[in-house]
Amino acid sequence: MSYVARSSKIEAVVVGGSAGAVDGLIAILSALPTHFSIPVVAVLHLLPTKPSYLVPIFSPQCGMLVKEAEDKEPLAQKTLYLAPPDYHLLLEKPGAISLSVDAPEHFSRPSIDVLFESAADVFGTRLLGILLSGANADGAKGLASIQRHGGLTLVQTPETATAAAMPQAALRLLQPDHVLGVHDIGSFLASLDDPSSGTEK
């Protein structure tokens, strides 16, 4: 599978999902080459009263450092940042993380929309937003914001999602650049950071 080249190099990837998204993200991470260096920031809906076990789940699946995001932490290459329970995760200039206890959105804290909208403001055309499986509409508005700022948008195909509501909500609101199954999403990500070409495929 080949992909259309863009004038702007992707410098950050933001991912959102809920029900079924853990398995989807495992499939994506497992498809990434060891040289993949673009920082990835993910919000998966979590129970606010229980610790997250996502770091040990995702760490064996990729060559990236996997960690819970910390307030005011700068984004680093080859790192997957996960939102901690009961905190919104935002990106702020010049590419640092901010954690917030503002009110939940879509009954969720962390909220995918909060991450996506803040990342769109910071990275503009240099951002890729990916929306995975989930059971509500969180992320659709944020993905539309990424598109308005000129970033790349990608939605998991609803028929491959455990919970199709989240990708379907996005598809009702916008026409994303790509609609792919999770294994193809991994291949697409790899194409954005291909050292043999120096450009996107």
Your description of this structure?
The protein is an alpha/beta fold. It has a single domain (12-192), classed as 3-Layer(aba) Sandwich (Rossmann fold). It contains 6 helices and 9 strands, in the order E-H-E-H-E-E-E-E-H-E-H-E-H-E-H. It has a 7-stranded parallel β-sheet with strand order 3-4-2-1-7-8-9. The model has no long low-confidence stretch (mean pLDDT 92).
Descriptive tags:
single chain; 201 residues; alpha/beta; Rossmann fold; 7-stranded parallel β-sheet; two-stranded antiparallel ribbon; 28% helix; globular
Mean pLDDT: 92
H and E string: EHEHEEEEHEHEHEH
Strand count:
9
CATH class: Alpha Beta
CATH fold-level label: Rossmann fold
- Side by side, the strands of the main sheet go 3-4-2-1-7-8-9
Class from secondary-structure proportions: alpha/beta
Q: Between the first and last Cα atoms, what is the distance in angstroms?
A: 9 Å
Q: What is the domain tally?
A: 1
Shape: globular
* Rg for CA atoms: 15 Å
Q: Largest sheet at a glance?
A: 7 strands, parallel
Helix content: 25-40%
Number of helices: 6
- What is the CATH architecture assignment? 3-Layer(aba) Sandwich
A few lines on this structure:
The chain has 201 residues and is α/β, with parallel strands linked by helices. Helix content is 28%, strand content 21%. 45% of the residues are buried.
